[in-house]
């Protein structure tokens, strides 16, 4: 209930305070108050850089948007989403803007974290250089492996997780809209204060091994990408076909030897009969080898089936599909409606044999930079719900 209250409050704030074209009933009674209030919010958006445009003359054109959130694990907190758009010197005349996106959060129970995503388009988009990094310290959950384990509340184990990750990659265009590249991936996780729901019980991996406190994964990554999207932060047309292979090995200092293959097909269609964009995605993750608990494929969170608690559903193999209708409204406002489904399994051949998880939801969008949205999503799953605040679309 609390999450829904925060979602409703933010949507109402966005609609009424952030440049809504509607006029309050009391405007005629006190037009000066309304005008001063509207001018104050417009100035606030200007000060935060949320002007809905992009000025390459600024070097990096920044926008900052704060917003509250609530989750059972982190309690009440404040998130800050920041995006900077820029054109590198070697970008070329028709290149889409490069971007830096930072999402940070802090909550009343001491949870803190920040994620960074940097996308560089160089030499008329013949070269791409990406960096993803994350650091946070926050509560997490583990229910074991598989959909059935995640459905049972008795399997829940609460713990504090400190996590660091760093993953750069470089891509070179080899055909029109087609790239190949390589990079590396580092992730270090440490679990503390592990507290199983059932006293005396420890969560187990699929092979029965005890829940480890530390995990370090390090390896090379290889990428094949066909990307005809017109703007990767918020596409209106085109498609993405991507295959990512990560090879973790003790040669690179990894605690575990395993391989992770991620396949992504996303498509975007500008509708003609009604205004808006239809977007759909199929995503698969397939792990092989000695996969640690923190590298198992997951469902839930802000991108993979919104509405489910992040970390609750894990296994070696995963598949999901989701469809969104992105509806433009007046000015810089918009709405999103989606449905999705996904499942997990120990073997790829068994995907679909366990129960499917379903997701439906609705979201509000406000354009803070040219074609860059802050999103407020409310997702509903099988007996669960989640509220998400971030910059950029879920896929």
What's this, in brief?
The protein has helices at residues 2-17, 31-48, 147-151; strands at 61-71, 75-86, 98-107, 112-122, 127-142, 157-175, 178-196, 214-227, 238-248, 258-270, 277-289, 297-299, 313-315, 317-328, 333-345, 357-369, 372-380, 385-391. By secondary structure, the protein is mainly beta.
Total domain count: 1
CATH topology description: Porin
Helix content: under 10%
- Shape designation: globular
**Most strands sheet:** 16 strands, antiparallel
Rg of Cα set: 22 Å
Order of helices and strands: HHEEEEEHEEEEEEEEEEEEE
CATH H-level superfamily title: membrane protein fhac: a member of the omp85/tpsb transporter family
Rounded to the nearest angstrom, the distance between the terminal CA atoms is 27 Å
- Poorly predicted regions are 1-24, 204-209
CATH hierarchy: architecture:
Beta Barrel
User: Structural class from helices and strands?
Assistant: mainly beta
How would you write the strand order of the largest sheet?
1-2-3-4-5-6-7-8-9-10-11-14-15-16-17-18
CATH class descriptor: Mainly Beta
